[in-house]
Amino acid sequence: MRVRLLALCSAVALFSLGAVPASASNEGHGYLALGDSVAFGFHPVTATTPITDRLDARNFIGYPEIVAQRLNIEDVNASCSGEATGGFIDAHGLDNSCRGYRSLWPLHTAYTGTQLAFAVNYLKANPRTRLVTLNLDANDFFRVTSGPSKDFWPPSTCFTPDFVAYFSSTGCAVQNLETIFAAIRGTGYSGLIVAMTYYALDYSDPAGLFVSGLLNGAMVTAAAHSDRVLVASGFKAWQPFTAAFGGSSCKAGLLIPTSATTCDIHPTPAGRDLLAGAIVQTIADSCSAESAIGCLDRNQA
C-alpha cells in the first residue's frame, strides 16, 4: 500500500510539474542544480524507456525539477550522468562516462567546458540566484574500484587506489568537494547551498551500508569544512520506506526495476520525490521561517 501511495504521489507531482508554465516561477532561473545522474534523472534503457529517450533531455526528470516545482522557482539543471568530482572540476579529471554521455546525448542545460566552470559563470551572471544543490562522488567510487590510473586523476594530487583512503576526511573526494564549494562561494554567491547525500540500495546489507557511509561521510565532511553548506540526507529520506521490505530499496519501489527481481541503481519517480522532499525540508529547517520558500526569501542575496 505504501508503494502504491508513493507512486500515486509521484504521478500527481509529474502532472503538476507539466501543468505549471515557466512564467509561474517566482524569480526566473533562481535555482542551479549540479551533480550526476541522480540529479539528471537518468533511467536505463528498458522495454518502456527506449534509448531514443536520450535524444531529448526532457524525458529525464530528476529531483531538481521536483524541488523547483515545490518551491515555485525555475531551475537550471546542469547535472551530467556519470560525473565524478575530478571531471566536475577539470576537463581531464576523473570521469565515469559524463564526457561520453555529453558527446552523444543532450544535457538539460547545454554548455561547453566543465560543470564547475558553467556553475561559476552562471552564478556570476545571475547574482540573484537563490538556491544551489549538489549531489556528487558516487562515480568516484565506481572508478576507484575499477582501478583507474594517475592519468585520470587531475586536478587532485592525492591519488590512491584505496577507496577507503580516497573517501577519508583528508582524501581526494573531500578535497575535491571542498574545492567545488569554495568556487561556488568565490563567485560572491551568498544564497543557500544544499548538498544531498545518497540513499542505500539495501539498508540491510552491511557492505553496502559501509560504502554508503564512505560516500556520504565525504560529502558531510566537505560541507562542514565549507562556507554555509547545508546537508539533506537522501539516506534518511528513503530508510523508513524500506523497513517493510527488509531494507530493500528495490522491493520498496524506490529503484527502477530491470526485471521481476532486480533493479537499477537509479531512483523511480517515488524515490526521486523523496529526495526532493529531503531538500525542501532541509531548506525549511534552515531558518525560523514557516516554509522553505520563506527561507529562500530570507537568504536572497
Written description of the protein model:
The protein is of the alpha/beta class and 301 residues long. The protein has a single domain, classed as SGNH hydrolase (Rossmann fold), CATH 3.40.50.1110. The protein has 13 helices and seven strands.
**Number of DSSP helices?**
13
Order of helices and strands: HEHHEHHHEHHHEHEHEEHH
Q: Which structural class is indicated by helix and strand composition?
A: alpha/beta
Helix content: 40-55%
CATH topology: Rossmann fold
Supply the CATH class: Alpha Beta
Average pLDDT taken over every residue: 88
The appropriate CATH architecture is: 3-Layer(aba) Sandwich
Strand content is: 5-15%
Instruction: Extract low-pLDDT stretches.
Output: 1-27
The radius of gyration over CA amounts to 18 Å
The CATH homologous superfamily name equals: SGNH hydrolase
Note the overall shape.
globular
Compact description:
This protein has 13 helices and seven strands. It is α/β, with parallel strands linked by helices and 301 residues long. The chain has one domain: Rossmann fold, CATH 3.40.50.
